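Tutorial handout. Part one gives the primary structure; part two gives the three-dimensional structure as tokens.
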Amino acid sequence: MEPTLLQTEIDPQVIADGVNLVWVLVATFLIFFMHAGFAMLEAGQVRSKNVANQLTKNLLTWSVGVTVFFLIGAAISGVVGGDGFSLTATAENPNAWVDWLFGAVFAMTAATIVSGAVAGRAKLRAYVGYTVVLAAVIYPVVAGMGWGTEGPLTGAGMLGDMLDGVGFHDFAGGMIVHGMGGIAGLTAAWILGPRMDRYNDDGSVNVIPGHSLTFAVLGTLVLAFGWYGFNVGTAASVFTVTEAGELVLGDFATVGRVALTTTLAMACGAIGAGLVAWLKTDKVDTLYVANGLLAGLVGITAIPDTTAWWGALLVGLLAGAQLPIVFGFVESNLKIDDVCAVFPVHGSAGILGTLMFPFVAAPGEVGNIGTAFAAQLTGVVVITVWTVAATAIVFGAFKAVGQARVSPEHERDGLDVSEHGVDTYPEFGQPDVATDGGSDEIIRTDGGEPNDGQIKMVTAIVRPDRLGEIKQSLAEAGAPSLTVTNVSGRGSQPAKKGQWRGEEYTVDLHQKVKIECVVADIPAQEVVDAIREGAETGEPGDGKIFVMPVEGATQIRTGKTGPDAV
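Part two.
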């Protein structure tokens, strides 16, 4: 049989190297795109006055963190993992930087998890400072211990020596990345303390809803999309070349299992969280379903390469089910204000999945169950102790010098203004205050009988959505000039019940707009009639109109006074 063109002219190693490089880069780009998901998810769960701050933290997590990881973090990880100290910048083969980048996106995922826990009150400088330390030391130590070729937690390291060569198993970072990030976030939130008004004097909890459930859900789906790069992409070798020169599948020999278990756990995480939320509140809470989907993904991330299909279903269900329970415990019992639920989503779910490794494995994937569990438990404990201690030291140091948390005034105003000088939604909830009612021509007439020669102030509290009709009615009545203010109030309109992450709260102050119209040559009653015509819907909450005398008026530009000023 004559040799084929492929066998005679193409080196199989070249094909293997090229395909493997491309695959790792594609997976890396998917994982990088998870930062868009984190940004949307976290921004949706904070108040509108803190959105820009949350987005800025996500941008700086990547920018600052990846730079520090390049300069020193990867080298520290090598030392801990037994590979020696080698700066990334000195690599002789440029393609070695592909492996570095793949590790960097994992490191930055761990870093950005923390930002959601400390939202709404952490100073930007404290968070960025912690990101520097995490990227330089905290995460590299964890990654080196668990993923280094001879790290303390690997089969070739200290733990392997103790347990007959059985080391800590974490395929794609269920504990090394997500568990670590969730534990770090919980520790940082504990050091900082809760947001203002989160807890009453008696310890009861006040619900502080985020500003956009839409953002939170879309961010969740973006994260789920990128997660395939996280788990499936960790099967980094598509091809390998045997000693005989044959091109065979590498890590891809079992990649189908990774894809399947990742998908099943994701789906069951959402189901588990939704079921528990329903049992607790008689409602399927949307945010819990979204967070549960992520918890299912976190739960399987350490073990998708070894887990049986039924095990993925079980891990996902348990990871999702624990979410509302753990969040309630952290919130009500520990009194820790974990804004974006990073610990139950990433921390406890990551720990759960990691510890379930020997119990849900497919046949032949695990040897002695007791030994394997001991290795997993040891790894979880070591990573937890290191992460809590290191995070507490960093945030504790910032707190000791008064640089960990913004001032009460800045927290009230919102971090967007105090930390960045911007308003994310400059027109959020703001009515269109154009005074011409939408017409090109301003109509002014004497409108009939004057107000006994007096100036009248007509004030109306109305529904915001009726403002356009009211402006048009006023313009047609000859009174297009008005002042509009956003207000909230309570009257005959019934209170409503809201729910945020399974907790119910009462909305008894409804958003309204206050319209003020000062008239002299137009009868006040005509203005009242115009406002009523535009504002009426026939439902409770349409508002009220008040007419009051005005003692005097002065036009600033001309100095005219009295009715002439109006």
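Part three, for discussion. The radius of gyration is 30 Å. The chain is about 55% helix and 10% strand.
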